[in-house]
Amino acid sequence: MARKVLRGLCVVIAPVCAMPGEAWAGEVFGTGFVVGDGHYILTALHVVADGGPIRVNAPDHRGWDAAELVASSQRLDVALLKTTTVRPALQLGKWGDVPPGLDVYVMGYPQPRQLGFAPKITAGLFNGDRDVVGSFELFQISAEIQRGNSGSPVLSPDGLVIGLVRARVDEKESLSKIGESFQNVNFALNSDLIAKFLHENKIDFVLREIDTNKYARPMTIYRMAVDSVVVIRAVK
Fold first, then answer.
1. Angle at 173 between CA 153 and CA 155, to 5 degrees
2. What is the DSSP secondary-structure string of 126-138?
3. What is the mean pLDDT for each group of 10 consecutive residues in the chain (236 residues)?
4. C-alpha triplet 103, 105, 107: angle, nearest 5°
5. For position 233, what pLDDT does the model report?
6. Interstrand relation of 27-35 and 65-73 (parallel, antiparallel or unpaired)
7. d(CA 224, CA 216)
8. How many domains is the chain partitioned into structurally?
9. Is the dihedral of CA 166, 221, 92, 59 positive or negative?
10. What residue ranges in 132-178 does DSSP mark as E strands?
């Protein structure tokens, strides 16, 4: 029964919405990361699903580049964007190599309107419970995420992408429906599904084995990934 109830509490992370009447009214923000030949960006479909113009930017501050939605999967909640600007692509880690308890890092743009347009990194664990929402496509992490983190890469200690941030359990909903507050329960799409999606759309990518003996410090992970993680701005 608890599992059935929890399925209703797992919600997509609402992208950051500008307040009506302000300069950014009608826009939403999320995160994406570079894949393929450097022109392609992977993000969560719910960030860009409204069909309006899409723009991306990165810490290199080259300006807001126009992006085109070229492929998507509603089932996976994944979208593939293409831009004219080339940025370094991140590499994927083999999902079968990911052990429960592995340290993980999330890089993205949480609440960019309030916290600024600089990428933020959070740390946590791969908690190991992949079936709490009735789907083995998702895995649970304890790295903190907020609105704006939708589409963020989940990184292994050696800097490989092992997931894409997709959903969280809503604390208020869990408290009202079952009388318990589930704190910091977050979910990501695993890298096996990411690799299949890219393969189906003929996007080249590097898939490497994770070195569980290699533990880079968070500041090193940040430096490794920062140029490949972009903020996405979409018009509703």
1. 10
2. B-----TTS-TTE
3. 46 45 65 97 93 88 88 95 95 92 96 90 87 67 92 97 88 65 84 97 95 92 96 90
4. 175
5. 93
6. unpaired
7. 10
8. 1
9. positive
10. 138-141, 153-155, 161-169
Query: Model pTM?
Result: 0.88
Kindly report the CATH number assigned to the domain that includes residue 14: 2.40.10.120
Token digits of residue 152? 């963020």
In DSSP terms, 66 is beta-bridged to 55
Residue recorded with tokens 């903190």: 144
What's the token pair of residue 193? Answer: 């599904």
Q: How far is CA 187 from the centre of its chain?
A: 9
Contacts for 4 with CB less than 8 Å, ≥ 6 apart: none
Name 34's Cβ contacts closer than 8 Å, sequence gap at least 6.
40, 41, 87, 88, 89, 90, 228, 229, 230
Q: How many residues does the chain have?
A: 236
Whole-angstrom Cα distance, residue 123 to residue 63?
29
CA distance 171 to 11: 10
Q: Are strands 92-93 and 207-208 parallel, antiparallel or unpaired?
A: parallel
The domain containing residue 211 runs over which residues? Answer: 1-236
Q: Which one, of 99, 96, 118, lies nearest residue 108 by Cα?
A: 118
**Please, are residues 188 and 141 in contact by the beta-carbon 8 Å criterion?**
yes
